[in-house]
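User: What would this chain look like folded?
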Amino acid sequence: MEFSAEQIAHILKGTIEGNPHCTVNNFSKIEEGRPHTLTFLANPKYSSFIYETKASIALVNHDFTAEKELPATLTLIRVPNAYAALAQLMHLTHQEKTKKQGIETPSFISDSARIPGKNIYIGAFAYIGPNVQLGENVAVYPNAYIGDNVIIGENTIIYAGVKIYEDCVIGKNCIIHAGAVIGSDGFGFAKEGEVYQKIPQLGNVVIEDDVEIGANTTIDRAVMDSTLIRRGVKLDNLIQIAHNVEIGENTVIAAQTGISGSTKIGKNGIIGGQVGLGGHIRIGDNVGIGAQSGSISHIESGRQVMGSPAIDAKQFLRSSIIFAKLPDIYRQVNQLQKDIDSFKHD
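Assistant: Here's the prediction, encoded as structure tokens.
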């Protein structure tokens, strides 16, 4: 697809400096800029590349000031935040490239399912169960399973191979990537003698609007009530979220994190990869947890923690310097003990 600087500036509400009629058909990094591509400058350490780039259009912040002459072939579009503007433009481009409509065959759609008459896509071999409700502009890609009574809000994308169990609710403008499982049974068993009896998981999963869930992530249904993923949450690939967990608005979680049952996470959190959280704990708002950390205790709002067990991030970083020196410290302590013992015997 091809866009002019004028069209892009209109979409981004930006200001053009240069040729409004120049066109681009792809994106490129500023250090690798190619003709007929759009690039961006958001980080000042890359500023030198803008004077050499062969890209046709560059997004820059309003406060960007050229220190020398820019290439004659380069048109600038000034915006409040070049990185955010690039993300917006790439999102729109991706939507146009991948947009599909219609119902492919073979696929199964229950007679009791409520499917909009237009702007819907259901891919081949998808299963749409009884009493399912799909909003306008929903896309369900091939081999997806949508169980009984599931509700999916408008503009949501369900990619290939996603499995959504019965009674779950998915909000508007969500993206669920390939292989994700929503609403599988929580890990609940009661031991009777030498046998574990399964505890039925009778709740569901509720995912609010504007949530993105990565490939092969699993979110278990609640024992009772709902496992809750609040508005704006972003989940990476390969995350395990257990039953009755609640994740607060706009929290982001990186890959391979595991969250045990009934843990509650607050708003605006940032959780790194391979983090492990024990069950029935509370993580406050605006908490940062470094990669490979673990916690079985509550974490108060606003704290930044690392390590396992997780401690204050600054304290952990100071301690990590000592970790590498422990063998030498051990030898020194042993030698001191020997010297003290020798002194006593003398």
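The chain has two domains: 3-98, 102-318. If you want, I can go into more detail on any region.
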